[in-house]
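Q: Convert this sequence to C-alpha cells.
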Amino acid sequence: MNYLVKGLSASAIALSAMASTATAADRVLTVSHWAGPNHAMATTVFPWMNDELSACSGGSLTLKIENGLAPPPAQYDTIRDGVADIGWIVHGYTPGKFKTTKMIELPGTSGNAEQMSVAFQSTHEKYLAAVGEAKGVQVLTNFVHGPGNINSVKELSSLADMNGMKMRVGGGVANNVGTALGVAGVNVPAPAVYETIASGVADGVFFPMETLFSFKISELVKHVYTNPDGIYTTSFAIIMNDDVYDELDDAQQACVDGMRGVEMARSVGAFWDEADRVGLEQVIAAGVEVHELSADQRAFFKDATSGIEADVLAEVDSRGINGQEALDYMRSMLP
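A:
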C-alpha cells in the first residue's frame, strides 16, 4: 500500500468527520441591509461582526448580508418576525415606538460617532433598557452616525434662509430641528434622497459626511454647514431576532454576548468616524464647499432649537424614566 495515500485517506476521513460535526451546529445568520453596498454598515461593520463571530465560534457562526429584504421603515418588523436574523434599524423610522432614544439626537449634543455611541449605549444600559421599547428582539447595541450637517444645493447667507426651504429630514429629532428652522420637511428614507434632490422635490438634506458619499449626494449638493455644538444625529440599533438567539448553542450565545453592548457601540462608532473622514475627502474632491457656522449663526441655531429638549424629555418622562437625570448622565460622557 502507498503509505502517502493511506495517510491522506485517514486525514480526509478525519476532516470529513470534523466537517460533519461542525455542520450540524453551523449557523449562517441572515443580515438585512438596506443602505446599499457602499455604505459603512456593509463595507466595514457587518464584515467586522462576521469576522469576530466566526473567530470566536470556530467558524460555526457567520453572517450573510442580504440587500433589499424590506424597506428601511420595515426593518424592525423584518427582524422581529424572523424574515431576517439580524439587522440595523433607524429608531426615528417608526414614529411613536421609540421615545427614549431621542435623547442622543438632541441639538447641542457634541462629540463624534464613537463618543456619542458609547454614551448612548451606556445610558441605554443604565436607564433606557428597562422600558423595553424593542420587543421580540435582542438589542445588541445602540449607536449613532457622526455629527449631522445641513447640506444644500444653494448657498445660505444665514440659517434664516432655511425658512420655507424644502429639506429632507430623517425622522426623530431631526424633524424637530427642521421645524424649528422653518423648513418644509420632506420625509423619505435615506436611499430615496438622491432622487428626491435630483428631481427638485428637496433643496437639500440633513446628513452626516459619510452618507453624502455613500449615497452619492455630494454629486448634487454644493454646500455643507457644520456646527461644532451639534446640529443633530440619528440613533440606530443593531438587533437580533429573539428566537434565533435562543436557538444558538451556549458557545455561540457566548460569542454574541461577548461582543454586544458598550464595546460594540465603540467599535461601530469608530467605523462611522472613519467613514466620515473618507466622506469629507470625497465631498471636498467633488467641489462641495464646507462651511463652519459662525458664532452668531451658532447662537441663532441654539436659540431657534431651544424648545426641543424640553419636549423630548417630556416624552422620555412619559416612559417612566427621569429624563433629565438620564440626559445629564449621557452628556457627562461627552466633550
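Residues 159 and 297 are 7 Å apart (CA to CA).
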